[in-house]
Amino acid sequence: MTKPKILVVFYSRNGSSESLAKAVAEGAEAVGAEVRMRRVRELVGPEVMAMAPGWAENAAAMNERYEAPTADDAVWADAIVFGTPTRFGSMASELKAYIDGLGGVWFQGKLNGKLGSVFGSTSSKHGGNESTLLSLYNVLAHLGLIIVPLGYSHPALFKAGTPYGATFISQGDTQKPGEDDLAVARYQGERVALIAGRTISAVQ
């Protein structure tokens, strides 16, 4: 099987989506994929970030760990996995800004036929995980990506996550993803990487 290239691009403010992103990357790497992890950057200024305790500090620490994503990263990848916390039932504006910036390579047809998958997190129960992931499916379709859902294709999905992608509820940022949540995310990375590898081999 050809070694697939997986881009995991995410936004995280308090670490929940970051934890899922790391698990997705681990799952993909475990089956031989080459992975790039990228964190999108804040759109607001320090005065807004200061209104939420820990935001600026967490952002600075994560930005030290991860490069910002570029359009070239998306072109490089065979599959793109987007991750986001919910913002009023949809994706974070930080992730949306990165996606909007892909218009140039999209217009050139450089994203068409790649695989796409999504994961997300919320602060509260019924906080919009499924609506957020489904809204991202619209984006994947417009980019020309082949959507890779999870269904109920792994036992972990009967304990955590959704058929649309890995999810987590932080209970007001008092909880961190547990083993069941991370198992779904690792499986998502594995599934995307394996399907990407098969797709590459089929067209060679």
From TrEMBL:
<feature type="domain" description="Flavodoxin-like">
    <location>
        <begin position="6"/>
        <end position="192"/>
    </location>
</feature>
<dbReference type="InterPro" id="IPR029039">
    <property type="entry name" value="Flavoprotein-like_sf"/>
</dbReference>
<protein>
    <submittedName>
        <fullName>NAD(P)H:quinone oxidoreductase</fullName>
        <ecNumber>1.6.5.2</ecNumber>
    </submittedName>
</protein>
<dbReference type="InterPro" id="IPR005025">
    <property type="entry name" value="FMN_Rdtase-like_dom"/>
</dbReference>
<dbReference type="InterPro" id="IPR010089">
    <property type="entry name" value="Flavoprotein_WrbA-like"/>
</dbReference>
<dbReference type="Pfam" id="PF03358">
    <property type="entry name" value="FMN_red"/>
</dbReference>
<comment type="similarity">
    <text>Belongs to the WrbA family.</text>
</comment>
<keyword id="KW-0560">Oxidoreductase</keyword>
<keyword id="KW-0288">FMN</keyword>
<dbReference type="InterPro" id="IPR008254">
    <property type="entry name" value="Flavodoxin/NO_synth"/>
</dbReference>
<dbReference type="GO" id="GO:0003955">
    <property type="term" value="F:NAD(P)H dehydrogenase (quinone) activity"/>
</dbReference>
<keyword id="KW-0285">Flavoprotein</keyword>
